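User: Write out your own:

AI:
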Amino acid sequence: MTTRTAVFGTGSWGTAFAMILADAGCEVRLWGRRPELVDAINATGTNPDYFPGVELPAGIRATADAAEAAEGAQFAVLAGTSQTLRASLGRWAPAIGPDTVLVSLMKGVELGTAKLMSEVIAEVAGAGPERIAVVSGPNLAPEIVRRQPAASVVACADEEVAKRLQSACHTGYFRPYTSVDVVGCELGGAVKNVIGLAVGIADGMGLGDNAKASLITRGLAETTRLGLVLGADPYTFAGLAGMGDLVATCSSPLSRNHTFGSNLGRGMTLQETIAATKQTAEGVKSCESVLDLARRHGVDMPITETVVDVVHGGKPPLVAVKELMSRSAKPERR
């Protein structure tokens, strides 16, 4: 029996994940808010706004009708931005069946509430943990649509649900691993965007590979500290949803957050950088909510704090680096 899936979001990652699902044998309904893009996808078999010239699998059909997309779906994949999830899901939820598993592709923390995406989904859709899953890992969408090899983590508190999702998105080029650590996977995905900004800033300043490697390593330490307080499994941060995603984001020119940070490091203002960025760099907003979450739990995250100072406080990157390097000395494991 063919697995029916809905993907809410025609952006780069939503489109790429729809391809994965279709290549794995699923029937996919891809929801888009713009009828003209939906029509173009159905007419041309491509997504001209994000991946022009890339042929989509025949198993994908686009629609602007949320009820049509969600009808009979075993999985409803949420692929928007983290800061718009609450409002968007509020509109989609009435169309989503009571047994449908809600799958988050988003990597962020909600501003104001400091909630993870799984918490927002539970609150808005009234879904229990057995109906909430996340996908997180080193998955740069432009590589995925070229069907280059990648691995990821599919996490759900119910291991059997995670296995079902694993089967639904397992292809010859996309290898998903299961986990029950939803919080760890989400946190790894959210904080890596912030560290990606930091590494991008260092790159733009020409600080060298030693500085970048140090930021990646200490950034992972910050993520792990916060994760432990929130009840995550520390081993998650050494895996694909932690170190794997962090390395991809911090080292690839395809990473939006790295590119955004690099422009800041080269001297562009925040507004100039935003104007030059065509797609959402989640870390720009999430750095504030990640820092808020850390402060609520008494967790020290100096790199995250520095990113917030540069991105939103207007602190010159050179001043921020000097302050970060002059912090008091301490043991590594603290």
